[in-house]
Amino acid sequence: MKKAENIIVGISIGDLNGIGSEVVLKTFEDARMLELCTPVIFANVKQLSFIKRNLNSEINLHGIDRLDQLVLGKINVLNVWREGFDLNLGTNDETVGEYAIKSFVTATQALKEGKVDVLVTAPINKYNIQSDTFKFPGHTDYLAQELEGDALMFMVQDNLRVGLLTDHIPVSEVASHLTEALITKKIETIKQSLIQDFSINKPRIAVLGVNPHCGDGGVIGNEDDAILKPTLKKIFEKGTLVFGPFPADGFFGSNQYEKYDAVIATYHDQGLIPFKTLSFGNGVNYTAGLNKIRTSPDHGTAYDIAGKGIADYNSFKEAVYLAIDIFHSRNQYNEISQNPLKIRPKQEFSKKGE
């Protein structure tokens, strides 16, 4: 198994006019982070140094031009571009969006080629990244194209894990997307992630209903009775511990979620609103279901506070921790799968030294 300090964490810098650079720098100001991993930030060392000075940070950055120049135990910055351009912190700028994508695409290629072990992405602006060569709503859609597997948004904060049956689609289209095939695939993706990424051998999964009160027997819609219930019954009978559908309105407030290893919401806000309320800025967006590991903080560019030195970096730090933990869990899972007679105790890798 790879030593902790040798785990290479690739970081795409996101929108340089937002808080991404600040939360990245603050995360690695703690020297203990370098006991867990070696970061490589895909950006430009001169521009990142400008932001560092603006934040009065004393962090040491090590600029490199190729990944084979990376130095373990240092905060490496790969110069993805050489040219300079103006940064106006807190503003929406299409040019900055272009460089955010250059960072992300280059980092993704390094992830595909195994030159970095995991990828953590700083926030982008989904509006200024669009171009003739990049026509994706965000990180996840591009990763789904470039990597193997079925991508699924999985929000994680300690033992609270929330997945989605549908994500970035209008609410008016949610019901039409709920098919037996989709539900089955998403539940299988989450089940496999819980086993290989979180070391949970027999995961218990709860599914929320799509309509208020799960339709009240068809009075408020029939999707729960006609689609969700029979599909979940079939999946359960095949051995997956899936339960529901549960009325969504009281599920989190009554702490029912604590009985399950994951909760699957039927649409974006049904899952994300309670998750972000409960996670208190420490949540992580994990792209489950792919052959490579990618995490990100659960917040956006936050232009309104960019450059002021007041951004909370806990979510980004947790994203780094989670990526490392999943990397170890997958290695352990693969090792045991190849040699089922070899039993290893579950280990805790995150937050070393705290």
Low-confidence stretches: none
Mean pLDDT: 90
Q: What kind of assembly state do the chains in view correspond to?
A: single chain
Terminal-residue CA separation? 23 Å
Q: Helix content range of the residues, please?
A: 25-40%
Please give the order of strands in the largest beta sheet. 3-4-2-1-5-12-11-6-7-10-8-9
Rg from alpha-carbon coordinates = 21 Å
Question: Order of SSEs, N→C?
Answer: EHHEHEEHEHEEHHEHEEHEEH
Assign the structural class, choosing from mainly alpha, mainly beta, alpha/beta, alpha+beta, or little secondary structure: alpha/beta
How large is the share of residues in beta strands?
A: 15-25%
Globular, elongated, flat, extended or rod-shaped: what is the shape?
A: globular
The number of helical runs is 10
Please provide the count of β strands. Answer: 12
Major pleated sheet: 12 strands, mixed
